[in-house]
Amino acid sequence: MDTAKAQASASGETAALPPWQDPAAEPLIRLENVTKRFGDFTAIADLSLDIHEGEFFALLGPSGCGKTTLMRMIAGFETPSAGRILLGGEDLVPIPPNRRPVNMMFQSYALFPHLTVADNIAFGLRRAGLPKAEIADRVAEMLRLVQLEKFAHRRPHEISGGQRQRVALARALARRPRILLLDEPLAALDRKLRAATQFELVDIQERLGTTFIIVTHDQEEAMTMATRIAVMDHGRLVQVGTPEEIYEQPNSRYVADFIGEVNLIEGVVTSAERGRLTIEWAEGAAPILTRSDVDAPVGTRVTFAIRPEKIAVSAERPEGLVNAWQGRIEDIGYLGNLSTYHITGPAGMRFKVQSPNRRRIARREFSWEDRVWFAFDETAGLVLTR
Amino acid sequence: MSDTASGRTGNPGERLRRALLIAVPYLWLGLFFLAPFVIVLKISLSDSVLAIPPYTPTLDLSRGWEGVVAMFRAFDLENYVWLTEDDLYWRAYLSSLQIAALSTLLTLLAGYPIAYAMSRAPERWRPILLMLVILPFWTSFLIRVYAWMGILGQNGFLNQLLMGLGLIDSPLVILGTPVAVYIGIVYAYLPFMVLPIFSSLDRLDRSLIEAALDLGCSRLQAFWLVTWPLSRPGIIAGCLLVFIPAVGEFVIPSLLGGSRTLMIGKVLWDEFFANRDWPLASAVAVVLLLILVLPILLFQRHAERQQRRADE
Question: Which domain, by its residues, includes A220?
Answer without folding.
Answer: 24-256
